[in-house]
Amino acid sequence: IQASSSISEERQELLGIQGAARDAYRQVAPLTVSQELDMLEKEQDQDLDKIGQVVGDLKNLAVGMNKELEVQTVMLDDLDEDTGKVRERIRLNDERTRALVNKPKRKEENPIKLPGRAGMAMSMLK
């Protein structure tokens, strides 16, 4: 019974019940140890139910995040493949451009030799 009264007093302190209200509480609600334990057990069950709901919500959130990550992984793989293709095309075009820039210039030969001033003008243009 002393354990019951000390639990009761602790509960009253936690609830902020003091003075005359405390005495009234004791007179109105004298609980046995088993009643108080039953009440505590019910509160714990309610708290555990709330925790279970939060854990369930977290699980659903984690499942949703996993699905989103799977979709984004596929998207990144596709992007990586496309980037590889573009990189190869750039490399080939770079090689072609370098080949054109470094290609030795051919001397154009004019099989027709123009006499006089026309021939001099053509030779200057070369």
Q: Would you write up a description of this structure?
A:
- By secondary structure, the chain is mainly alpha-helical.
- It has four helices and no strands.
- It has helices at about 1-15, 20-30, 35-100, 115-125.
- The radius of gyration is 46 Å and the shape is rod-shaped.
Name the structural class: mainly alpha
Q: Which percent range describes the beta-strand content?
A: under 5%
Shape: rod-shaped
* Major sheet attributes: none
The parts where pLDDT drops under 50 for at least 5 residues are none
Gap from first CA to last CA: 121 Å
Mean pLDDT rating: 80
Task: Bin the helical content.
Answer: over 70%
Count of β-strands: 0
Number of distinct helices: 4
Helix and strand element order: HHHH
Integer-rounded radius of gyration: 46 Å
What is this structure, in a nutshell?
By secondary structure, this protein is mostly helical. The chain has four helices and no strands. The model has no long low-confidence stretch (mean pLDDT 80).
SSE diagram, text form:
Elements: H1 2-15, H2 19-28, H3 33-102, H4 116-125
What are the salient characteristics of this protein?
single chain, 126 residues, mainly alpha, 4 helices
